[in-house]
Amino acid sequence: MIDMRNLKKVYKTGSIEFEALKGVFLKIEKGEFVSLMGPSGSGKSTLMNIIGCLDTPTGGSYYLEGRDVSGLTFDQLSEVRNQKVGFVFQSFNLLPYATAYENVELPMLYNGKKAPERRQRVDELLTMVGLYDWRKHRPTELSGGQQQRVAIARALAMDPPILLADEPTGNLDSKSGEEILDLFTSLWKAGRTILMVTHDTKIAAYSQRTVHILDGKMEADI
Amino acid sequence: MIFIFFKNLFMDLYRQPLRTFLTLSGVVWGTFASVLLLAFGDGVSKSGKKSMHGMGEGIVIAWPGTTTISYKGITKGKAVRLTAEDVLLVKEKVPDILRISPEYIRSRRIRYNKEEYNNNIRGVNVEYQYMRNTIAQKGRFIDDPDVKNRRRVCFLGNTIAQNLFKDEDPLEKKVYVEGVPFMVVGVMVKKIQNSNYSGQRDEHCLFIPYTTFSTLYGQKYVSNVIIQPFPGQSVPVVANIREYLGNKIGFSPKDADALFIWDFTDLEKSLDIFFLAFNIFLGMIGSFTLMVGGVGVASIMLVVVEERLREIGVKLAVGAKRKQILRQFFSEALIIILMGGLIGFAFAALVLGVIPMEKIEDYVGHPQINVMVGIVTILILLAVGSIAGLMPARKAASTNPIEALRSR
Ligand SMILES: Nc1ncnc2c1ncn2[C@@H]1O[C@H](COP(=O)(O)OP(=O)(O)O)[C@@H](O)[C@H]1O
Ligand SMILES: [Mg+2]
User: Fold this and answer.
1) Which residues pair with B116 in a beta bridge?
2) Domain residues of chain B, as ranges?
3) Which site among B314, B316, B398, B399 would you substitute to test the A interface, given the most A Cβ atoms closer than 10 Å to its Cβ?
4) Whose CA is nearest to atom 5 of ligand 1?
5) Which CATH superfamily is domain A2-221 in?
6) Domain edges within chain A
7) Each residue of A155-210: pLDDT tens digit?
8) In terms of pTM, does the model score above 0.80?
9) Using an 8 Å Cβ cutoff, are A198 and A37 in contact?
């Protein structure tokens, strides 16, 4: 599913260069539920953004479902983001002016899916995350946990094989966090591959495997 | 559905009324000014052409003059004289002439009851009315039997008719010209005419059969000739008339003063060009005003893109392509411009509807929003909107998703 070899990322800020990833090797098989752990500033988000094709590496190779994505154009990467990965952010990143329904519908609008198909899929996803009755509400009218569930429904809209979550419970109270993690568990049991960033071992315990990153380098799997 | 793409735009417009007002007002004012300028330009052109058509449409006027070139042994300085018979023969001998009429002009005292005026009498034939637009509003113009039988009938200009008859119906009444009675057969419809080639404007004149004129006043030679060539034929027709009459009466076809010609079709052409240039000039002023509004929209949209980076980031993250982002912000700018355009258009229509047209009609014609004004304004709006929309849209489309998502 994911195969990274010697992946590097150098940030350039003016004349200052900073190597955030110093040669990462990471392999994730289909159907795995993996936690990515590491201290703050170790490069977790940088790695997730590259996996999610929001950013591009400056060295090494990255194969997603057997396809080399390091040489893709901007629009090709958009297509990968649309169809291959669902991204869940710590800060939800919902459109504030759009309803829960419209937020979930968004990825399908960029894919040109027909209205009846979209409606069916959105209703199905909102029912799954338990927010069907809230479909006409805007994010500001929802609790943090509810917003994150809308975000998860949106990430799954195009039925991507892999779900990426960068500290998905970081902005939530523990009860809402647990609900999100239970949702991930059931998604994983239904066959979805999941990669989740956390710095909490209790949260990492939900997953099947944990990988550690330190100072831009992977540590041995536990 | 697609509405969601513009939802943020309308919420932005609604949430920031002052900014919306400032953004729109430039476009509203630009459109308003453009529409008014174009409408007035169109009105002025139309009334200019109309007032020229008051003298005639597609006609050539010829005045016999004095020779300035010796011809076939006759020394220069000879007066050229044309009889009505010469004039009517021209139509038979020279091709491509649609209509022709001799014209005799004199001033005479014209009286009805106690009202008396010293006005122009014009002796003409039947075809004159179609060339000179002396259309009957009441009764009829001079007809063939009138000419043939040298009848003492007359057709009145609308102003002299009004002055002589006040509220009375002039038809079948007798007016006296130097004591000779003429029966009124018709009154001319009011028309716009700012000047005339000789004598008074048609509204002050009294038209009678040329046969009656020449018999009554013993005048053999015509004052001038009105000719209507087939459309587009005025140049060869004029040359052929000079050739034919020169030969017959004795003057050189090259002698411009022997037969002085005034070609209205020429004048109309240059008038057309003048008014076209005039309207383009006004359109350009309007466009510049609108462009200033467009610059306003463009700069506000650039700020909007900056403010909405996070939205752009989210859309890119879920799979929006560059051209989809581009299209969204481009359409938003276009929507703002078209909205402003619509309001400006409505204001202009309102103002044109409120202006009392009767008071300005003689000067600027009847300014109105017609198809031409509408199409030109819409084209200018689209052009300005496209230019104003492209810059912010390209900025939006070149956003880096990671940086956009990090922005607050
Ligand atoms: N756009 C950037 N430009 C420069 N440095 C960056 C940028 N993004 C992240 N970094 C740096 O890279 C390192 C890793 O950041 P990040 O991946 O966000 O860490 P984590 O998510 O593990 O906290 C940090 O030291 C951070 O300052
Ligand atoms: Mg992070």
Assistant:
1) B111
2) 2-52+269-406, 60-264
3) B314
4) A11
5) P-loop containing nucleotide triphosphate hydrolases (3.40.50.300)
6) 2-221
7) 999 999 999 999 999 999 999 999 999 999 999 999 999 999 998 899 999 999 99
8) no
9) yes
